[in-house]
Amino acid sequence: MRARRLRVAGAVALIGLALGAASCGGGGGTSVAGRVRTWVSSADFGGSVGALLEDSGQIEKVVRLDEGPGALRAWCGVLEDDASTAAGHLPSPVTSVTDQLQRAYRLELAAANLCYGQPTAPPYPPRLTQALKDMTAAEGLMEEALQEVTELDGQVPSTTPAPPSEGPTGGDPFA
After folding, report:
1. What does UniProt give as the signal peptide span (predicted)?
2. What would the CATH number be for the domain defined by 31-153?
């Protein structure tokens, strides 16, 4: 009788350990690489990063070419939408990637809010200068996250964004 109770207690303890190990792994035996690969695909991680990099590049171009506050406002709105969408796909399966991306997406959202409605001709107002710095810092964080995801997954995510259904046309869609 005592041996049976010990076997039952041992089996219960073993099941508890197995369940604990499975919950720590987050995937019931799925590898970190597999969880990352699934998240990259379902969150369109590469496309989201590519869209944010493209948005930042367009904002820098609008400023460089002094295309006016209407074009700047339009691209800042797109940046805000894309950063919000990307942030909605967090967390990732890896804490360090999630942390990098949360910081990057917050910087992109801050940049979008700072640059919205600013003049594009020099001298640049401090808000626009800060927005450009925030976008540069966000780009570095996203590149670090891409690097880590690539190392974990073994595959480089494509950063080609999905074609926009309708992007800004250079005019002021908010006027």
Report:
1. 1-21
2. 1.20.120
